Amino acid sequence: MSTAVQIRTRDPRVILNALADRVPNLITEEEPTLWDREVALLVRDNPIMTRATAQRLLGQAIAYTITAMERPGVDMGVGYTVDVAVHQLILDTWLFFAMCDQYNNGTYKHHAPLIRRRCDGTVLRTAELLRDNGFEVDDELWAKDEATCSPCDNKVPDSH
User: Fold this and answer.
1) φ/ψ of residue 84, rounded to 5
2) Which of 42, 91, 120, 152 could disulfide-pair with 54, CB 3.0 to 4.6 Å?
3) What does the alpha-carbon distance between residue 76 and residue 68 come to, in Å, rounded to a whole number?
4) 84 band by pLDDT with thresholds 50, 70 and 90
5) Neighbours of 86 (CB within 10 A)
6) Around Cβ 109, how many Cβ atoms within 10 Å?
7) 128: how many CB neighbours lie within 10 A of its CB?
8) Can you say how many angstroms the Cα of residue 30 is from the centroid of all Cα atoms in its chain?
9) Average pLDDT of the chain to the nearest whole number
10) Burial (0-12, 13-18, 19+ Cβ within 10 Å), 20
11) What is the pLDDT of residue 4?
12) pLDDT for 3
């Protein structure tokens, strides 16, 4: 008798909203969840971005950030497209510290980008790492930066 293996996809919205108890000061009537807050900040700071695009980007940014924290030392990086949302997470410091506390063993995950983009296939390899880490990958967003690739540098200790 064979037993089917059920693969569960990790939901970035659930992951982000689960941090609410750590940062209750960020929850408001206008943005009742952390997901709503980050989407609203992305739309606010990128006036041509639609809410739907912000949600897609945020989901991929969370998948990337969590994977980078859970797989220290693994060479990975985002392209410009998803990096917009990664920067949003990093800039919302209360939330980013909560993510680090939960997923990086309480240690701050530094961001130390290179000046020049690597152009070595890192972006598409990273998309596969996210998939291997249980996240759904928005292939269209990752493919946009296949040629220009990533400025992320894993040579600085505990950075992405």
Assistant:
1) -55, -45
2) 42
3) 7
4) very high
5) 23
6) 20
7) 12
8) 23
9) 88
10) middle
11) 56
12) 57
Average pLDDT over residues 129-158: 79
- Residue 111 corresponds to which tokens in the numbers above? 């961001």
Q: How far apart are CA 18 and CA 25, in angstroms?
A: 14
Distance CA(155)–CA(22), nearest Å, equals 30
Residue matched to tokens 């980007």: 57
Neighbour tally for 146: CB within 10 Å: 14
SS3 135: strand
Quote the CA–CA distance of 142 and 9 in Å, as a whole number: 18
CA distance 2 to 6: 13
Nearest of 160, 159, 148, 141 to residue 121 by alpha carbon: 148
Dist. CA 120–CA 19, nearest whole Å: 34
Residues, the chain, total?
A: 160
